């Protein structure tokens, strides 16, 4: 079975979690005021729900993501919270571990998402899109409060929604669509700023049997 087909089945079926599951500590609510303005967002953690549309099919799940400098740690879970796959990337490369014990490596997380999950989603660009940045000549539209409203970047369109009227609010919803038809819907339920560097890995918790 191809790895990307395996992952799709794991997401759909919600099989038991990773043998060494990980999770994030409690984060601040997306509705609560944050000490860091959107323009100053650097190291962060977020948690939320996502839905990926690929080749006419939808794959829902949950996401925990921690980012600090060149290190990213992502935990993909079923809609019921059972760990399915973990991606860790830094300057030395990227590794994806699945709930069946398989492990894959690549030079970058972008390559893993493309080759293993068949997702053309560039994680490195998603970091910019979350903050409303538009490198390489992107076209950004802002709402009446000056916040990112929609962004066109290369073959991508990104739309933003917010949970408050704060001009520096972080997005509560992100809609990402590629001209090929691939689409990501991300509902960010929790944001947390990280003032210090990340530990070597996320703290381990017991898996759901």
UniProtKB/TrEMBL annotation:
<keyword id="KW-0732">Signal</keyword>
<dbReference type="InterPro" id="IPR004565">
    <property type="entry name" value="OM_lipoprot_LolB"/>
</dbReference>
<dbReference type="GO" id="GO:0044874">
    <property type="term" value="P:lipoprotein localization to outer membrane"/>
</dbReference>
<keyword id="KW-0653">Protein transport</keyword>
<comment type="similarity">
    <text>Belongs to the LolB family.</text>
</comment>
<feature type="signal peptide">
    <location>
        <begin position="1"/>
        <end position="21"/>
    </location>
</feature>
<dbReference type="InterPro" id="IPR029046">
    <property type="entry name" value="LolA/LolB/LppX"/>
</dbReference>
<keyword id="KW-0449">Lipoprotein</keyword>
<comment type="subunit">
    <text>Monomer.</text>
</comment>
<keyword id="KW-0143">Chaperone</keyword>
<dbReference type="GO" id="GO:0015031">
    <property type="term" value="P:protein transport"/>
</dbReference>
<protein>
    <recommendedName>
        <fullName>Outer-membrane lipoprotein LolB</fullName>
    </recommendedName>
</protein>
<comment type="function">
    <text>Plays a critical role in the incorporation of lipoproteins in the outer membrane after they are released by the LolA protein.</text>
</comment>
<keyword id="KW-0998">Cell outer membrane</keyword>
<keyword id="KW-0472">Membrane</keyword>
<dbReference type="GO" id="GO:0009279">
    <property type="term" value="C:cell outer membrane"/>
</dbReference>
<dbReference type="Pfam" id="PF03550">
    <property type="entry name" value="LolB"/>
</dbReference>
<keyword id="KW-0813">Transport</keyword>
<keyword id="KW-0564">Palmitate</keyword>
């Amino acid at each position: 079975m191809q790895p990307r087909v395996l992952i799709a089945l794991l997401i759909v079926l919600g099989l038991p979690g990773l043998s060494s599951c990980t999770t994030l500590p409690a984060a601040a609510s997306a509705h609560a005021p944050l000490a860091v303005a959107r323009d100053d967002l650097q190291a962060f953690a977020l948690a939320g729900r996502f839905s990926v549309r690929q080749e006419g099919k939808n794959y829902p799940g949950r996401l925990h993501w921690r980012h600090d400098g060149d290190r990213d740690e992502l935990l993909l879970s079923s809609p019921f919270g059972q760990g399915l796959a973990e991606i860790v990337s830094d300057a030395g490369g990227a590794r994806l571990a699945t709930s069946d014990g398989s492990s894959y490596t690549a030079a970058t997380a972008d390559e893993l998402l493309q080759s293993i999950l068949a997702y053309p989603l560039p994680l490195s660009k998603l970091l910019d899109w979350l903050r409303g940045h538009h490198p390489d000549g992107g076209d950004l539209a802002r709402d009446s409060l000056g916040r990112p409203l929609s962004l066109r970047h290369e073959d991508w369109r990104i739309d933003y929604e917010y949970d408050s009227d704060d001009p520096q609010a972080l997005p509560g919803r992100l809609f990402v669509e590629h001209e090929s038809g691939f689409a990501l819907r991300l509902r960010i339920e929790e944001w947390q700023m990280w003032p210090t560097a990340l530990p070597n890995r996320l703290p381990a918790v017991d898996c759901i049997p």
